[in-house]
What we know:
Elements: E1 15-16, E2 26-27, H1 28-33, H2 43-46, H3 53-60, H4 63-71, H5 77-90
Antiparallel strand pairs: 1-2
Amino acid sequence: MTDSKPDIENHDKEIHWHCPRLGGEVPFRYCRTTNEGMPCARIEVCWETLPDVRTFLEKHYNLEELQALWSKPPKDKIVSLFDLIQKAKNQ
Length: 91
């Protein structure tokens, strides 16, 4: 049986024990999409236990996207929480 999901979603349900931005457990999908559809700038550090995280990023994002991702400082925890609250209110 083959997996019918696109391979960008293969790790989406894996859980990281601690997000430095949010302070709790988060699925890989959150880390992969939290930055306006792009990965969090900390994804490589947080998911270093995922054997192919660098390969994953290089496969699914072009060089310009990755450079933009790494050049932006990540939002701090308060700003991130405020953004999440606003998104929840708008749904």
